[in-house]
Amino acid sequence: MKTRYSVDTRSLKMSMIGAGFDTYTAFAKAAGISDKTVSSIAKGKNPAYSIMCKMASTLNLSEETAGKIFFHDNLRVT
After folding, report:
1. Which of 51, 76, 30 is nearest to 66 (CA)?
2. Which pTM was predicted?
3. What are phi and psi of 8, to 5 degrees?
4. Residues in a beta bridge with 74
């Protein structure tokens, strides 16, 4: 079975709140990306590498934490 990765949306949202961002718009502006992009990712869309880097940097995530958030194992069998 092939492992599928997805965004751990719960951890991403908690990281945003922990960093002081109370809206997607505020976070998007700080990260230099659109709020529509942030909203899509928060709903589970996998981001491009460049977007992932901007988000991780803005949230001051360690490489390990960013990896856990953006490459979350999706173990559900579909």
Report:
1. 51
2. 0.87
3. -80, 90
4. 4
